[in-house]
Amino acid sequence: MSEIHEVDVVVLGAGPAGEVIAGRLGGRDLEVAIVEDRLVGGECSFWACMPSKALLRPAQALAEARRVPGAAEAITGELDVAAALARRTESVHDWDDGEQVPWLEERGVLLVRGHGHLAGKQVVHVGETILRARRAVVVAVGTAPMIPPIDGLAEARPWTNREATATDAVPSSLVVIGGGPVGVELAQAFATLGSAVTLLERESHIMERDEPFAAAQVAEGLKDDGVTILTDVQAESVTRGADGRVTVVTSTHGTLEAEQILVASGRRHLTEDLGLEAVGLDGSGGPIEVGDDLRVAGHDWLYVIGDANGKSLLTHEGKYQARMAADQITGDAGARIVDHGPPPRVTFTEPQVAAVGHTLDSAIAAGLRVRAVDVSTQGNAGASFHGKGTGGTSRIVVDEDREVIVGATFVGVDVAEWLHAATIAVVSAIPLDELWHAVPAFPTRSEVWLKLLEAYGK
What we know:
Helix content is 28%, strand content 26%. The protein is of the alpha/beta class. The chain has three domains: 3-47 and 92-144 and 268-329, FAD/NAD(P)-binding domain, CATH 3.50.50.60; 154-265, FAD/NAD(P)-binding domain, CATH 3.50.50; 345-456, Enolase-like, domain 1 (2-Layer Sandwich). Strands 1, 2, 3, 4, 5, 6, 16 and 17 form an eight-stranded mixed sheet that branches. It has a five-stranded antiparallel sheet with strand order 18-19-22-21-20, sandwiched between helices. A four-stranded parallel sheet has the order 10-9-8-14, covered by helices on one side. Strand 12 and strand 13 form a beta hairpin. It is globular, with a radius of gyration of 24 Å. The model has no long low-confidence stretch (mean pLDDT 96).
């Protein structure tokens, strides 16, 4: 017998975007039901952002200690792989969402476990449960790893980020397909944990969406940790033998063998089984198009946030969209997402890459008259406390006509926390003349801003 619930809003997907909108609406005394067929917290919490950073951190902390005299002399052992894996498991609460659920309950959100799909206007079915939404349905289902159509790859049972970040053993050797952020992070993580890693990238260099200098400096960091990087190479076929080992035939580098293979070459949308056809929409599996109010045209009750709308496959962007959509649903017609160019993003390798807005090339492609200004990331007093030889380059991209920053990229050790200052500068279009009055404290690494302004000549 069917169980029927009538609520104000139904949210499909309890990843970061879904959680934020459900909690925000629940906190405003709306009745909300959220549907999830896996774990509350989603991909980022359990199989991507959190566990991958936990795997990277031990080697980075050890490297910093070894750079600093006094601390270096105290190190007597090597990285403890078992302890690193245990800490990873702790960071994801042993893949149990019991600590996530109370946050929803405190806001009166009804959690419905199972796969939800649209069955008509403002109606969602979850097995035998029927949810009717008085105000809105929000699609926040995210994405999943994509397996490219390489001969034999799917049959070889490759790792994706999910299997890699959940492993209880480090393979002796690993082939990584894909040189984007996921590929380089996991390649370095497993190299520092003891794997012999070979990374395959079909383009001429890794991290093709970042500044070329950032890609080059990350490549050097990976090589220093023992990663072999092969570019301009395509995997043509993959087989897994009776002994469990993997053989990869490449287009230019012959045959490679490894204990395991990891695919990190893109994401696929999870929209093909949502019942979109029931409300007259395309259900073939692509992103669902929305306006800047995050609503589907012709369906003013249907919102799509996060990965599912294809605007940006980043957790923080999904959370931002969730806040705007929640404001829309509760009556703020002026709530809109604003496009300030490429969003803030971090690759958590060593060195890290933290960037926001345009690269030099993307700014030129956008028709802007720009100039790039580069300084050394370690070229200030604060950097000396992180040890010698950390390297890195910091860049701002300046719109010469408006004299505002339209992009920034920082490469170096622990630069992720620098990014929000740059994001504020880009989003707010603060004139360079005003930035001179934002005085960085001495001796901190934030003096990089002073160096950048001096190099620009203002």
